Amino acid sequence: MSRSLRLSPRQQHVLWATVRHYVATAEPVGSKALVQEYNLSVSPATIRNAMGALERSGLLYQPHTSAGRVPSDSGYRLYVDRLMQPSEELARQVDSRFSSDLNWPAWSLEALLKGAAQVLATLSGYLAVITVPQTSMALIRHLQLIRVESGQILLLVLLDSLATQSMVLPLPQPGNAEEAGLEALDRELQILSNFLTHHLRGRLLSEITTLDWSELDREFQRYADALREAMLELARHTEVLAPTQLIVSGLAEVLRQPEFSESQQLQAILHLLEEEQSQLWSLIGKSSPAVEASRLQVWIGSENPLEPMQGCALVSSTYVKDERPIGSVSLLGPTRMMYENVVAVVEAAADYLSTTLN
C-alpha cells in the first residue's frame, strides 16, 4: 500500500520528521515537538491535521489515546522506499574502519567475516549476521596434486569462496617414487593438475561426473579411478555440510535497545539465532532474482516471514565473487532504526567484502 500511496509534500515532510524524531527519542511524537525540533513553518494545528491524515492512511498510529503518534510498519516502509537517503559519509567511514581493522589476506576467510561482524555491530548498535559462503555452492577455482610422502599424494581443491577441500589418496601402482623418480613423479602430478583445472574450473564439485576421463593420455590412465573416487567423496562431503553457518555479533549492543528490554522478545530472537538458524538462512542465505538485481533487501516488522522477527527490522545485502552472490551481510534491530544509516553501513560492508574477496 505505502509504495503506491500518494502524499502531499507536507505530509511527506511530516512523516519524515515523525520517523526521525521517534527513532531518536523512542517516545510518541506530538505536533509541538515537530514544530520545535524541525523548524516547520506552520502551526501545530496544521501538523496535527497532516498527522491525522497519515494515521488514516495507516502510516502512523497512536499507542494510547492521549499520546502522540509513532510510525507503523507501513510508515517505515514508505520512509525507506521514498524519503530516506543513505549516508555517503557513513559509508566512507565504514570502509575506512574496515580497511584499518581487518587484516586480509593474513586472516582466514572466517576470521575476516568475524571481524567484519564485530565492526558492524559496534558501529550500528544492532545485531550483525553474516553468512559464510556455502561450500556446496562454491565453484572450483584450482586443483593441485602434491606428493606428500612415499606412496601418497594430496588432492587439494581451491574453491572460489577461498575455502579449500583436500584428500590424501594412495599413489597408484607402479608409480612409486623409487621406480619413477621424484622429479618425474612431480612432473606427472603437475600435468594432471593442469588437466583437472582446465576441465573443471568454474564448475561445482558435484559436476565432476561430467569429466571425460578417457581424454587422459594413456600413461596417466592409472590415476583416473583413484582421482574419480576421491573427487566424488569430496563432493559428497560438501553436500552434507550444514548450509546454515552464520556469524553473529552484537548481542551486548542490541540489549541496550529499549525494544529488547522484554525478555520474551529477546528470548525468541536468541532461540532463532541459536536453534533455528536454518530458518534465518532461508531468509538471508539464498538470493532470489529480485534480490540479486538490487543486492539490498529490507524487511520491516510484519513483513518478516519469521514470527520471532516480526517486531524487528532486518537489512541485508549480498556480497559477491566474480559477480555471483556468495553470502550476505545483515543487521537486525528494532523497527525503530535509522534506516539511512543502517542501509549505508550494510551496503558498505558488503561492498568491502566483495572487493576484498575478488
Descriptive overview:
Helix content is 48%, strand content 18%. It has helices spanning 9-25, 31-38, 44-56, 73-83, 88-101, 109-124, 177-180, 182-200, 221-240, 251-254, 263-275, 277-284, 289-294, 339-357, and strands at residues 60-61, 70-71, 127-131, 140-149, 152-159, 164-170, 246-249, 296-300, 312-321, 324-334. β9 and β10 (324-334) form a beta hairpin.
- CATH level 1 name of the largest domain: Alpha Beta
- Percent strand: 15-25%
Which architecture of the largest domain does the CATH hierarchy give at level 2?
2-Layer Sandwich
Q: Report the C-alpha radius of gyration, rounded.
A: 27 Å
CATH topology of the largest domain: Beta-Lactamase
Shape: elongated
Write out the CATH superfamily name of the largest domain: GAF domain
**SSE order, one letter for each helix or strand:** HHHEEHHHEEEEHHHEHHHHEEEH
Unreliable residue runs: 287-292
Largest sheet: 5 strands, antiparallel
Compute the number of strand runs: 10
- Count of helix runs: 14
Helix-strand category = alpha+beta
What fraction, in percent, of the residue positions are helical? 40-55%
Mean pLDDT: 82
- Sheet with most strands: strand arrangement: 7-3-10-9-8
Please indicate the count of domains. 3
First-to-last CA distance: 40 Å
GO molecular function, one term: DNA binding
InterPro entries: GAF-like_dom_sf, HrcA, HrcA_C, WH-like_DNA-bd_sf, WH_DNA-bd_sf, WHTH_transcript_rep_HrcA_IDD
Protein name: Heat-inducible transcription repressor HrcA
Domain Heat-inducible transcription repressor HrcA C-terminal: 110-343
